Amino acid sequence: MDIAPEGTGLNSATDRRIPIGVDTSVPSVARVYDALLGGKDNFAVDRAVRDKLMELTPGGADVPLYNRAVLGRAVRYMVGQGIDQFIDLGAGLPTVQNTHEVAQSRNPRARVVYVDNDPMVLTHGRALLDANPDTTVITADFCEPDEVLSDGDLRALIDLERPVGLLMVAVLHHLDDAQRPAELVARYRDAVPPGSHLFITHFIDGGEETAQIERVMLSDLGSGRFRTFDEVRGFFAGTQLLDPGVVYNPLWRPDPTDVVPDPMTFAGKIIGAGMGRKP
Predict the structure, then answer these.
(1) What ranges do the domains of the chain cover?
(2) Per-residue pLDDT tens for 105-136?
(3) What is the CATH topology of the domain spanning 62-277?
(4) pTM of the entire predicted model
(5) CA distance readout (Å), 256 to 69, 106, 131, 168
(6) Which of 16-30, 80-94, 172-186, 242-256 bottoms out in mean pLDDT, i.e. has the lowest?
């Protein structure tokens, strides 16, 4: 795999090399999220955005923890419904309790394809998954469903004639209205068979408090749209929206074994979640 020359690292304390195509002067959504989770696959420019967001979000470090926890609950639920193949769109950098780890802990034969267009995701994902024949990562823009769903590596693992778990976790809020996110979701929904499940998490409009966060994200990251519960529910058109509907992350099918902070803090109300089943 192409990598930058020796000596260029993620920071001065490491000798880790930077994949070709990574611009360390511009923040990346995947790397900012990694920084929020306390990961090491980020740069000073990403941490600067993280720090701004943390200043505006009391308990901000809990936001990605809620999001990881609800992802795990969603995957476990889908496995319990017989779903054994997953497409994780805009997957981001590997962290704890990744989709394949959760799914394969319940069904060792579950298959997972991660989709992202960040070159660091490809590099780190392939290193992590090298010995896992039932999981892969592909480089593609999730805004191009035809490209994603026709990818040879994806088709080698995913049978689109059988129900699929579609995961859009914290990705649709990086599309503005002009990019027609509802139409994008519909294209994926139409491409999978009945019995497939769609899981979405999304920033929830909380008035002026979240408007400040939105402004920072738009100015520093170029994306980060907060939408109302009704707008997020609209993404589930053509599916049966499962209980409890679209709710704040900590309230979506809570598991007493999850170790998460108080769900009704400000941080607990930043992102909402919902799941639909294609009839």
Answers:
(1) 62-277
(2) 999 999 999 999 877 767 766 766 777 899 99
(3) Rossmann fold (3.40.50)
(4) 0.85
(5) 11, 18, 33, 24
(6) 16-30
